[in-house]
# Entry
Amino acid sequence: MTHFQSEILNPVTGWILLLILSIAWIALGIYWGKKAKDMDGYMLAGRNVGLAFGTATAMATWVTSNTTMLAPQFALQLGIWGMVAYSTAAFGLFLFAPLAKRIKRLMPKGFTSGDFIRLRYGKKVWYIFLIISIFYGFTWLISMGMAGGILMNALSGIPYRLGMTVILSVCMIYTIFGGLYAVIGTDFIQSMIIMIGVVIVGGAVLYSIDLDTVYQDVLKDKPMLLNMLLPASIMAIFNNLLFGIGEVFHSNVWWSRAFAMREGIGKKAYTIAGFMWLPVPIAAGFIALTSSSLGINITSPDMVGPLMAGNILGKVGAIIVFVVLFSSLASSIDSLLAATADLIVEDIFKKIFFPAIQEKQLRNVSVYVIVGLTFLAWLVCMPRIGTLATVLFFAGPMVASTIYPIAMGLYWKNASKEGAFWAMIIGSGAGLIAYFQIGWYTASLISATLSIIVTATFARWKPAEFNWLKLDESRQA
Amino acid sequence: MNFSLPFFNFLITASLLLLTAGVILLLIMLFRDLKTKKLW
# Structure
């Protein structure tokens, strides 16, 4: 059992906050869910999402509890480079921006990232892709569920199992009722809460302590945190960057938003979301560097952010941290539930087993899949095996191997199915070997490098001549 | 070789300012989408 440094809120306040937030998200989900009349509405929010909601959903989904909890830990252990390394994950959003535009143009009636792989590279690559993507989505879901339980427990003493069950159930309920309408609507409010909360806490820290003092104290006590040439941090930058790009490029969480946004919105929304996300790890992370100036001894590095906020801002700070963390968790869990369920329903259930299924039945299946996914995640989260969250990092090399088959597949006619197949197999395999034999920080790097070599070699050696029109299934119908 | 104090100040101040700008921009976009009925 993990012991945390302290609870910064009493359990009664924790329960009241949990209740208010849960009721608010469920009520909003049900309200917005009334707009979902058909599957386009339920799965893709009517394919007409504007710039404000599009930007907010991309930003909020990419802010997970890891962003607000791990960034201070990175700062505490890897210094300035640590915060910057975490920020590089914003490049996933920046680089996906032009892809979002092209995806919408090539596949105006597409549903999932699986649709693209199936139409572009055929069934063999599609099956591998589905395994990678569903494995990644499910492990991300588990890590968020566990983080939810651990954080609620650490912040306010709410028992782990209860906290984890509440957060998973709340997200499940409003996702079932409202589909992507509910997910995107709540994401807007959650993104505002996250940004305002981080600014208030960061501003209060700046107000209570001089940055010059912080700098001098860090220089005196832990000079390596200010070192420009700290090797581990520099490697962490490249690994984080590639893992981030891989996560965004392949995941249906981001593809479904690209399909959901109105024509001409995707590129702008993802670019602006990247700029809004970029400062979050730094603004949340630098607080950790003030610990030595304020004389706070940190024994649990992963709790440094909330602990500092609680120390500087008192109960108000603790409440802000609780609400920000709940919002970051909910904004990612709902998106994962919706997007992974879409992948299972649309790609596996409909495309593989029941192509003639009616829309109404498909919506019922969606509900069962969302409930099933939540239940499975809940079961795995129950024993509170902290180390299981690291399973998510195994997914790093696997998703990194999909970067180039996807990016090249969207732009190069001659990217071939053999190239995509071997890029994913060789990239994932070598990346996993590197993960165990060398270190986590090399896994995504090796996987992505091999993936680009294999995809490009096949494109040159055995080129395909792909017809882009094949990606638009509505045209074929 | 260390990161300088001015850079340290810049990094943190710029992050907080960028986030504040993000909140304002998101609100502007929201009102514009509401006005033009292009929210979704």
Notes: Helices of chain B lie at 5-35. The interface with chain A takes residues 1-3, 5, 8-9, 11-16, 18-20, 22-23, 25-26, 29-30, 32-33, 38-40 of chain B (CB under 8 Å).
